[in-house]
Design brief:
By secondary structure, this protein is α+β, with helices and mostly antiparallel strands. The protein has a domain of 164 residues: Cytochrome Bc1 Complex, Chain D, domain 2 (Orthogonal Bundle), CATH 1.10.760. Helix content is 27%, strand content 11%. It contains 12 helices and 14 strands. A hairpin with a 2-residue loop joins strand 9 and strand 10. It is globular, with a radius of gyration of 21 Å. Bound molecules: heme C (2 copies). One heme C (HEC) binds next to helix 3, strand 8, helix 6 and helix 8. One heme C binds next to helix 10 and helix 11. GO terms for molecular function: cytochrome-c peroxidase activity; electron transfer activity; heme binding; metal ion binding. Keywords: Heme, Iron, Metal-binding, Signal. This is Cytochrome c domain-containing protein.
Length: 385
């Protein structure tokens, strides 16, 4: 499939608006599923993958729209698509050489940045291809998140989310959720709420994960820095046909629209277990938010940032989120989840709760004090979501 197919599809519409909407969804899905290829140096009318990248397609890291997987080979090398290493420091700075993410793949003729191994549950980076990383740079894993129902979360008004924020903890409950404001917009998506909209998140992914330019990140070399001139000058697919980009506004909008329409998971249990609130989980994992059009969204998140303590801290600030803060991860879809938390370190709900600290310390302690049967009830409830 060539990119031009999608442009032509758009012109074929002599159809009803319902047909047009489903055609748009299908085209968005095709772009989401599509494995991009690199541009040969001789022509620009091709895709423009990379030069450096983590995966070739969105679906590779979000299999069936779901969460990524982690695999570790016998020699400890981390594979598993949907798992990346984020780079940065407490000041919010990227690594001066390697940028904001370690790209472990490269197109022919370019050098992948490094290989990542898992050693005693910690990362070991080998074969750094562009010299030493800054000693100030921290690195931490990020497992891809499931994409279902995010359109509903995009439709919750800023006011509804901000009504739950309590940055100075005025109500003295030890919990001080705050928004991650990104260029004046409220961040909602990704583990630190760095993307205010699905369109921006899709553009971030095209740039950081796949190495492609969009109207939002116009560099065709994605996350490559000035210290990686071979990459910056590498082959690209920017083309006049596509607004001098690799992914033009029409394509980006189709991908965002596809994400917008992915249906929310349906929980087996509709009612929130009172114990969930009594223990204090609901103070962050808000059982229900209401969209601008009045729809109820049982995502179990306030979409705000919380200091989760030393155990989960990664020392990487993103936007206004500090190295200790994370967006409350929605709990819908837990019945399908095998790896929990931002880097997938927990393999069960119980283990995920055990990692909670900081603002969630009190809730965790309440959970640990529950009788065995109450614990069991709470865990069964979570596993039904
Ligand atoms: C290399 C793997 C990889 C690829 C390719 C990738 N993603 Fe992701 N995706 C991730 C990771 C990892 C996260 C979490 C990122 C973070 O927290 O910073 C994520 C997060 C997201 C989110 C936010 C989900 C939420 O709950 O907030 C969306 C939406 C998303 N990706 C869409 C896309 C789209 C669209 C594409 C293709 C253009 C794409 N992704 C390509 C790994 C990937
Ligand atoms: C102070 C806010 C806060 C409280 C209170 C809280 N959580 Fe969380 N929860 C979070 C944040 C933030 C994350 C994401 C942390 C990360 O990925 O590093 C999270 C993640 C999780 C996850 C993993 C979700 C996933 O898909 O990876 C589970 C399960 C969970 N919480 C359950 C609970 C339960 C049960 C309680 C009550 C005992 C609770 N939480 C209390 C903020 C909170």
């Amino acid at each position: 499939m060539k990119k031009t197919t999608f442009v032509l599809c758009g012109l074929l519409l002599g159809t009803s608006s319902a047909q047009a909407a489903s055609l748009d969804f299908a085209m968005g899905k095709a772009l989401f599923d599509r494995p991009w290829t690199s541009a040969p140096a001789s022509t620009q009318a091709t895709d423009g993958l990379g030069p450096l990248f983590n995966a070739r397609s969105c679906v590779a890291c979000h299999p069936k729209g779901g969460r990524g997987k982690i695999t570790v080979s016998n020699d400890g090398k981390i594979g598993g698509l949907g798992y990346v290493l984020r780079l940065g420091n407490e000041k919010g700075e990227a690594d001066p050489i390697y940028g904001r993410q370690l790209q472990t793949n490269a197109i022919h003729g370019q050098k992948a940045e490094a290989r990542v191994y898992l050693d005693d549950n910690y990362y070991r980076i080998e074969d750094l291809a562009y010299g030493e990383m800054s000693p100030e740079t921290n690195y931490a894993g990020r497992l891809s998140q499931p994409l279902f129902g995010l359109g509903l979360l995009e439709d919750v008004s800023d006011e509804t989310i901000l009504a739950q924020a309590d940055p100075e903890d005025k109500n003295n409950d030890g919990i001080s959720g705050r928004p991650n404001m990104i260029n004046g917009q409220l961040g909602r998506f990704a583990w630190k709420a760095t993307a205010p909209t699905l369109r921006i998140q899709a553009a971030n992914a095209f740039s950081n994960d796949i190495g492609m330019s969009t109207p939002i990140h116009r560099h065709h070399f994605g996350d490559c820095t000035a210290k990686q001139p071979e990459c910056q000058k590498g082959p690209h697919g920017d083309s006049v046909q596509f607004e001098n980009l690799e992914i033009d506004s029409k394509m980006l909008n189709l991908v965002a629209l596809y994400l917008k329409r992915l249906k929310a998971p349906t929980p087996q249990v509709q009612e929130t277990l009172p114990l969930f609130k009594d223990v204090g989980c609901a103070s962050c994992h808000t059982p229900e938010l209401t969209t601008k059009s009045g729809k109820k969204v049982a995502a179990y998140s306030d979409l705000l940032l919380h200091d989760m303590g030393d155990g989960l801290a990664d020392g990487i600030a993103e936007g206004q989120a500090s190295g200790r803060e994370w967006r409350t991860q929605p709990l819908w879809g837990t019945s399908n989840t095998k790896r929990f938390l931002h880097d997938g370190r927990a393999t069960s709900v119980e283990e995920a709760i055990n990692w909670h600290g900081g603002e969630a310390q009190r809730a965790k302690e309440n959970f640990l004090k529950l009788s065995a049967s109450d614990k069991h009830r709470l865990i069964s409830f979570l596993n039904s979501l």
